[in-house]
Design a protein that fits this description.
The chain is an alpha/beta fold. It has one domain: NAD(P)-binding Rossmann-like Domain (Rossmann fold). It contains nine helices and nine strands. The chain has helices at 13-24, 36-50, 64-72, 97-125, 143-162, 182-185, 201-213, 223-234, 237-246, and strands at residues 4-8, 28-33, 54-58, 79-82, 128-133, 168-173, 177-178, 198-199, 218-219. The protein has a seven-stranded parallel sheet with strand order 3-2-1-4-5-6-9, with helices on both faces. The termini are far apart. Bound molecules: NADP nicotinamide-adenine-dinucleotide phosphate (NAP).
Length: 248
């Protein structure tokens, strides 16, 4: 039977790479993001190229109304990819708290609520897979964005253990810097990031899907980032914090 995947943030960057990779593997898709025209263009392109069924849901996942629309679309999916995300410029304490609350809703509340909806169906069916897109930032104390991603990592590690016997796996993807419009959107300065740290979105997704098939709890694409994650998790936290502070 054809498998169906729901991908949030599917019109750009990593989410778009997931949508293309899954369509090439024969998945029907439900694509969620805000810009309806862009969603429709991506859906048309993918369904024409791969001959799969693509449904679109235009929803702002930081809003209660938008999230409810996405939850309704979770019905019957085999794979959920919580990918949509963004960041706001400036360090917490200097930013607008309303914007921070909206970020929390997008980065934490939305994946939590979508995971809950998908998990309950998957457990009762005895099968299903979830990918939560976190970040290497989760392993360092570096402001609100890193804290949101650390929340996803911690929950995902537990979920993968807790529901393994129910036929449901949860893989948390932690990419390093991926070359896409994400950094432009947050007006981030990226000139000082060494070339070896940049990753290609298609390769990140290919690694994540391999790890998903193996039921791995954590997916850290590339050996160099795996090594950095080991360092960040084993070196004294004071040292890790000082190194992280020197970054952007
Ligand atoms: N790029 C990196 O270096 C990097 C590294 C590690 C982790 N990540 C994580 O990877 C994920 C994807 O990032 P990306 O770099 O691929 O970002 P991106 O290229 O900026 O794409 C973000 C996607 O999310 C959608 N989106 C943004 N805000 C949304 C909202 N409020 N409601 C619904 N959809 C929304 C966007 O579409 P609309 O604007 O139309 O809504 C777009 O489809 C994020 O969770 C990010 O934190 C990225």
């Amino acid at each position: 039977m054809t498998q169906r995947a729901l991908v949030t943030g599917a019109t750009a960057g990593i989410g778009h790479a997931f949508a293309r990779a899954l369509a090439s593997r024969g998945y029907d898709l439900v694509l969620v993001s805000r810009d309806l025209a862009r969603l429709q263009a991506v859906a048309d392109q993918i369904s024409t190229k791969h001959g799969v069924e693509v449904t679109v849901v235009s929803a702002d996942l930081s809003s209660h109304v938008g999230l409810a629309k996405a939850v309704a679309a979770v019905d019957g999916i085999d794979l959920l990819i919580n990918n949509a995300g963004s960041s706001i410029a400036g360090w917490f304490g200097k930013t607008d708290i309303a914007a921070e609350e909206s970020q929390l809703d997008l980065m934490v509340r939305a994946p939590m609520v979508l995971t809950d909806a998908a998990l309950k169906q998957m457990v009762s069916r005895g099968s299903g897979k979830i990918i939560n897109v976190a970040s290497m930032a989760a392993f360092t104390p570096r402001g609100i964005y890193a804290a949101h991603k650390a929340w996803l990592v911690n929950l995902g590690l537990w979920l993968n253990l807790q529901y393994a016997d129910s036929g449901v796996t949860v893989t948390t993807l932690c990419p390093g810097f991926v070359h896409i419009e994400f950094h432009q959107r947050m007006n981030a300065k990226t000139d000082d990031i060494p070339r070896w740290m940049w990753l290609d979105a298609d390769k990140v997704v290919a690694a994540a899907l391999r790890d998903l098939e193996r039921g791995k709890a954590l997916s850290i694409p590339t050996a160099r980032y795996k090594a950095l994650a080991v360092l960040a998790r084993t070196l004294p936290i004071g040292l890790v914090s000082r190194v992280a502070k020197k970054g952007r």
